[in-house]
Specification:
Strand order of the largest sheet: 1-2
Largest sheet: 2 strands, antiparallel
Radius of gyration: 15 Å
Helix content: 25-40%
Shape: globular
Distance between the termini: 48 Å
């Protein structure tokens, strides 16, 4: 299954024998993922997996932390 436009896409990937997947080229281009970049994989048993670039992950977590500290004031 492959569906791609300029803002979003859905593609299928296969897990290899070592548990690895390849991030499809459209995703690497859209999210500016380059060799050597670090990706964060988050999982929830009921909701599935999410993959973020580490800078996006830390920005998200920083926003959550600042929102939590704002609520405690």
């Amino acid at each position: 299954m492959n569906e791609i436009n300029e803002d979003r896409f859905i593609v299928s990937v296969k897990v290899g024998p070592k548990g690895q997947i390849t991030v499809p080229a459209p995703a690497r281009k859209m999210f500016d993922i380059k060799e050597g970049d670090t990706l964060m994989i988050m999982g929830d048993k009921n909701k599935g997996l999410a993959i973020l670039k580490d800078d996006a992950f830390y920005a998200l977590m920083g926003g959550m932390m600042s929102n939590a500290s704002d609520k405690n004031k």
